[in-house]
UniProtKB/TrEMBL annotation:
Residue ranges occupied by any GAF domain in the UniProt entry: 159-316
Organism, as annotated: Actinoplanes utahensis
Pfam family, one: PAS_4
The protein, known as: Diguanylate cyclase
Domain of life: Bacteria
C-alpha cells in the first residue's frame, strides 16, 4: 500500500479547467511513430522499430522474418491484411485515420487506434516489392478526447443544476466505460460532521457491498476511503488481500470480487471534507500516471457537483425559513386584525349599553323599580327586572341577569347597586 500526498481542491468551473490542464496532458500522453518494412506478397516483416513492436504486443512479438499474418493472427477479418494486398497489387498508397484495431488474442483484446499509411516500395525497375508501414498510435488521444467530452457533459449537468445523484452516477458510468482497464467507481459523501461516509454512487458495485459500507467511519486504517477521508490525501491499496487497512473489510471485498482500491478525498475550496472518489479493480494493480490523473480530474468534478448541491440545499433551507417567517407574520397580522375587530365590537356594544343605562336612569324618575328589564335595547326585554346596576357617573338601571352581566362585561365602571330587592348577593346566587 502506498499513500500519495496532495490535496484535491474544488473550484469554480473556469478554475477547474485550469486545474485539470496537467491531468489532460497526462491523459493524452505522447504519441510515438511506428514503422515496419514488409516484403513480398506474404508481407514478411523485414524490420520494424521498437515502437511498432511495443504497440502490437511488446517483446513477445519482437520478431522478424515471418509474415505479418503469422505475427499478428488477430488481424484476420479486420481488413488490414486485405488493404496490404491491395496496395501491393495496385501500387497505390493507402492512408487511414483513427483506424480501430483489436490487438492480442483471448477474451479481452486491447482496443487501439492508429493514423497510418501503407506506402508501396519499388525496385529499380519500378516493380512493387514490399510495403512500408508508417503510423502513429492515437489510442490515448482518442480515449482522452472521449473522456473530455464526457467531462464537459458533466460540467454542463452541474451548470444546469441536475440532481446530484444523476451527476455522480453519470460520472461513475462514463469513467467505467472509457477506462482502458476494467474499473468500478464509487463515490461516498461525507456527513456534515465529516465523521462518516454515505453512499453517493456506485453503479457497478454489488448492492450488498454498497449497503455494508454505507455509513463507515472516517479514520486511520478504515479501508481505502475511510483512511483517505481522514488523511485528506489519496490512499492507494494495490492488494486488498494483504493490506492492513482492509482487515475489517477483507471478506466483504472478497465476496464482491474486489482486489485493489485507490481512493481520493473530495475536498471543498476551504479544505472541508465532501466525500471520497474510489476506483476499484478486480485484480491487484498499481496505478499508472493516467489513472492518477483520471482520479484527480474527476475528484475535482465531483467536488463542484457536491458543493453546488450543498449551496442549493442551503438556499432551499433559507427559503423555507423565510416562508415560515412570512406565514407566521401573516398569522400574527390576521390575529391582530381579529382582536381589533372584536375590540371595536365590544366598544360599540358598550356604547349602546351606556345609552340604555342613561335612558333607563331617566325613566326611573317615574318608575323607580320597573317590572321588566330596562337593558334589552330597542328590541326590549320581557324578563323581570331583578338586578340594579350603576356606573360612576350616577346612571343606574334595572335589568335581568343576562343583560346585567352583559353590561358588567362591556361598560366601563359598571357595578351592582345595593337594593333591597337585589344586590350583589342576588347576582352571585342567581
Amino acid at each position: 500500500m502506498t499513500a500519495v500526498s496532495g490535496r484535491q481542491h474544488a473550484a469554480d468551473p473556469a478554475a477547474a479547467g485550469l486545474m485539470a490542464s496537467d491531468d489532460v496532458r497526462t491523459l493524452f500522453g505522447q504519441s510515438i511513430a511506428v514503422f515496419a518494412q514488409l516484403t513480398g506478397p506474404e508481407h514478411i516483416v523485414v524490420t520494424a522499430n521498437p515502437a511498432f513492436f511495443a504497440a502490437i504486443g511488446g517483446s513477445d512479438r519482437a520478431r522478424t522474418g515471418i509474415p505479418l499474418a503469422e505475427l499478428m493472427p488477430e488481424l484476420a477479418g479486420q481488413g488490414f491484411l486485405d488493404l496490404l494486398d491491395r496496395v501491393y497489387r495496385t501500387g497505390e498508397p493507402y492512408t487511414g485515420r483513427d483506424a480501430r484495431v483489436l490487438l492480442g488474442e483471448g477474451p479481452h483484446p486491447r482496443e487501439a487506434f492508429f493514423d497510418f499509411t501503407y506506402e508501396p516500395h519499388r525496385d529499380a525497375a519500378g516493380t512493387v516489392t514490399g510495403i512500408r508501414v508508417i503510423g502513429m498510435e492515437t489510442t490515448q488521444v482518442k480515449h482522452a478526447q472521449r473522456l473530455m467530452a464526457e467531462h464537459r457533459a458533466l460540467l454542463e449537468q452541474i451548470a444546469r443544476r441536475a440532481p446530484l445523484a444523476e451527476v455522480l452516477d453519470g460520472m461513475a458510468r462514463s469513467i467505467e466505460e472509457l477506462s482502458a482497464d476494467e474499473v468500478l467507481v464509487s463515490v461516498l459523501l461525507a456527513d456534515p460532521d465529516g465523521r462518516h461516509l454515505r453512499h453517493g454512487a456506485a453503479p457497478s458495485l454489488p448492492g450488498f457491498y454498497n449497503e455494508a459500507i454505507d455509513g463507515i467511519a472516517t479514520g486511520e486504517g478504515v479501508g481505502s476511503c475511510g483512511t483517505a477521508a481522514h488523511r485528506r490525501e489519496p490512499v492507494i491499496v494495490t492488494d486488498i488481500t494483504t493490506d492492513p487497512f482492509w482487515d475489517d473489510f477483507r471478506d466483504l471485498a472478497g465476496r464482491a470480487g474486489l482486489a485493489a482500491c485507490w481512493s481520493t478525498p473530495i475536498l471543498a475550496r476551504d479544505g472541508a471534507l465532501l466525500g471520497t472518489f474510489a476506483m476499484y479493480h478486480r485484480t491487484p494493480r498499481i496505478p499508472h500516471d493516467t489513472d492518477l490523473a483520471l482520479a484527480h480530474l474527476f475528484a475535482g468534478t465531483a467536488a463542484l457537483a457536491i458543493e453546488r448541491h450543498h449551496i442549493e440545499q442551503a438556499q432551499q433551507a433559507a427559503e423555507a425559513r423565510a416562508k415560515a417567517a412570512h406565514d407566521e407574520l401573516a398569522r400574527t397580522v390576521r390575529s391582530e386584525q381579529a382582536l381589533r375587530a372584536a375590540a371595536e365590537e365590544r366598544a360599540a356594544a358598550a356604547a349602546e349599553l351606556t345609552e340604555r343605562m342613561r335612558a333607563a336612569a331617566a325613566a326611573q324618575a317615574a318608575a323607580p323599580h320597573p317590572e321588566h328589564c330596562q337593558l334589552g335595547g330597542a328590541s326590549g326585554c320581557t324578563a323581570a327586572a331583578e338586578l340594579k346596576v350603576a356606573d360612576s357617573w350616577g346612571d343606574s338601571a334595572w335589568g335581568c341577569p343576562v343583560h346585567v352581566e352583559e353590561a358588567i362585561l362591556n361598560v366601563r365602571s359598571v357595578f351592582i347597586a345595593s337594593e333591597e330587592l337585589g344586590g350583589l348577593a342576588a347576582y352571585v346566587n342567581r
